[in-house]
Design goal:
Elements (H helix, E strand, L loop, with lengths): L1 E19 L6 E13 L2 E15 L2 E12 L4 E12 L6 E11 L11 E8 L4 E9 L1
Antiparallel strand pairs: 1-2, 1-8, 2-3, 3-4, 4-5, 5-6, 6-7, 7-8
Length: 136
């Protein structure tokens, strides 16, 4: 069951590159992004990188990691995995998955014991929006 919304990030893809996959002929796309938003109501800057690969035609698998720095100088690290599908417009894609966060911040400590279900949507210009809810 979904609980409260815990994050909302607006960002932009800052880089992409193709990297060789493990299997012969497999290509993975490494995507980096940066954005601003809120985690548990605290404003911060988020940056991360995820690697996407085609799992089967029309289905993407991705895994990534990143860092959120709050305006107060506190940090949150995260990693996650998800499935996506391309929309057919350049690198535009819609992703759905789960994030796990870790922080030393007392104010944000409940993130350490939380699974966050996310939506991550990227348009053909590289504009991105991420929203996440506590998974109860």
């Amino acid at each position: 069951m979904l609980g409260e919304k815990v994050m909302d990030i607006q960002g932009k893809v800052t880089g992409q590159r193709a990297v060789q996959g493990a299997a012969h002929g497999e290509v993975k796309i490494e995507v980096s992004f940066q954005g601003m938003g809120h985690v548990l109501g605290v404003e911060g800057m988020d940056m991360g990188t995820y690697v996407a690969r085609v799992r089967q035609p029309g289905v993407l698998y991705g895994s990534g990691h990143g860092l959120t720095m709050t305006k107060d100088g506190e940090s949150i690290t995260w990693h996650g995995e998800g499935l996506g599908y391309p929309t057919g417009k350049g690198m535009e894609a819609k992703w759905r998955g789960c994030l796990f966060m870790q922080t030393q911040s007392q104010k944000l400590a409940r993130l350490n014991a939380m699974s966050v279900i996310f939506e991550w949507d990227v348009d053909e210009q590289g504009n991105a929006r991420g929203v996440g809810w506590e998974w109860k």
